[in-house]
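TL;DR need structure tokens for one chain.
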Amino acid sequence: MLKKRYGKITETVPGRQWRWEIPEWSKKGPDKIMDSELMTSFSGAMFHFHLIFEEKNDKTMVGFYIHYKQRPVPKYTYAFGSTQGRVVRQHTAHSIPKSCKRCGHFNVCQNVTLKRAIERAGDDTCVVWFQFDDCTLANTGNLGEFVWTIRNFRSIRIGPYYSTSFPRVTPQDLCCIKLTVDPKLRTNVVISVAQRQQRSIPCWFKCTNLEGELLYKSPEALAEQWPSVPYSALTSNLGREGTLIVYISHFKEVMQEEEKAPISLSNLLPPPGERIHEDADGRFNVMDDGDMEMYSDADEDPELELEAQAASLRGENVTEM
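>> reply
TL;DR here they are.
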């Protein structure tokens, strides 16, 4: 029996980015499971999306998974929203174990919140934007120092956007570099560190282009007052390939406290056992046990128009997405 496929898939960047439109969203509800059409990734692997509704504390939650036919699953970012371009929630799968083929997030957002955005658009259609991230993270060989290379930086969604997770010093102490739009100054990007353990991590940032030309350098160790950098300063000199390179390092006094050898990124995943959450169907919840954002699904309204903010940085009209 053939599996029923829902909605319409549009490939917007070959092998990298797709848009999934799901009509008649108001008719979807608890215990509903939807699969997308099959797609082909940049690596040639076949994959499809898997969207579920689950009841949690008397609320209907929307979950999103990807079934990738090969291992490992590449790092990816996705967002839920409406045809008007309003984004309700965006996530990056930053900590995917190399052994899994199906992974995602069981608890993306409340359906009632998503419905509000869809109702405003007036067409009863949910939109999922998805991309395989074209970026890499590597240890420089120095303790606590990493380099994040982001190709085609101008095309990414900053709302928020994360690096692959990495250990500050030990594999249990995972964190990510996070880029998001400054809510106080929408033409700026905030560079920060998101970590599972809620404590300050003094660090230093530097941004360059592919030729090593300095675009931004933090003046001192930062832990709570994260730098807000003009988007134009990060993009004006990236060249034709548009590659942004972000360095992060911990200051000398921090490194003296942790006298250990550098850790290879190839040994990071899978994460410690207590952070592996696999359901009966073998799906891995990559952002369970506390998302790096530490958001609350309670009675907040997460319609922050994050993509509208990011689009304004790129000089785009978000309603034309």
